[in-house]
């Protein structure tokens, strides 16, 4: 069943020289990041996040506010572009994490998948020079997952499930 529409953005972001406000993630942070993800996505994605972390631990960044993880983002190489996401974050952390990821990926082609109605994520991506490539639908089978799309600043990509 359809749940909500997403847009894949693509482009080659420019180097902005934006300040870095994030820290690299390490394995000790993973339980806290998985719990943040569970609260935002409404599901336990421990296996997915652990696998993504094991594949590219150096790509993970975390934004902490008052000692607490408010969001995380990662990137991974793809066949046609670098995939930015997942990015799970609060309203305060999301724009910072996305902007920094775009800056780190400057001069490379990137893909970023976001809910169509997530205005702040869309604004951040478009300000970074990305354009919509295609639309697709978030689907569910059985009981719908009650996630919080406003906390989804970048999806992991439809191929990850």
Summarize the structure.
The protein has 161 residues and is α+β, with helices and mostly antiparallel strands. It is built from 4 helices and 8 strands, in the order ββααβββαβαββ.
Keywords:
eight-stranded mixed sheet, alpha+beta, 26% helix, Aminopeptidase, 8 strands, 161 residues
C-alpha-based Rg, rounded: 14 Å
CATH architecture: 3-Layer(aba) Sandwich
* Shape summary: globular
Q: Tell me the total number of β-strands.
A: 8
Output the CATH class name: Alpha Beta
Largest sheet: 8 strands, mixed
Q: Number of helical runs?
A: 4
**What is the structural class?**
alpha+beta
What's the rounded overall pLDDT mean? Answer: 92
SSE order, one letter for each helix or strand: EEHHEEEHEHEE
Helix amount, in percent? Answer: 25-40%
Give a description of the structure.
There is one protein chain. With 161 residues, this protein is α+β, with helices and mostly antiparallel strands. It has one domain (2-160): Aminopeptidase (3-Layer(aba) Sandwich), CATH 3.40.630. The chain has 4 helices and 8 strands; from the N terminus they run E-E-H-H-E-E-E-H-E-H-E-E. Strands 1, 2, 3, 4, 5, 6, 7 and 8 form an 8-stranded mixed beta sheet that branches. Strand 4 and strand 5 (82-89) form a beta hairpin. Helix 3 runs parallel beside helix 4. The radius of gyration is 14 Å and the shape is globular. The two termini are 15 Å apart.
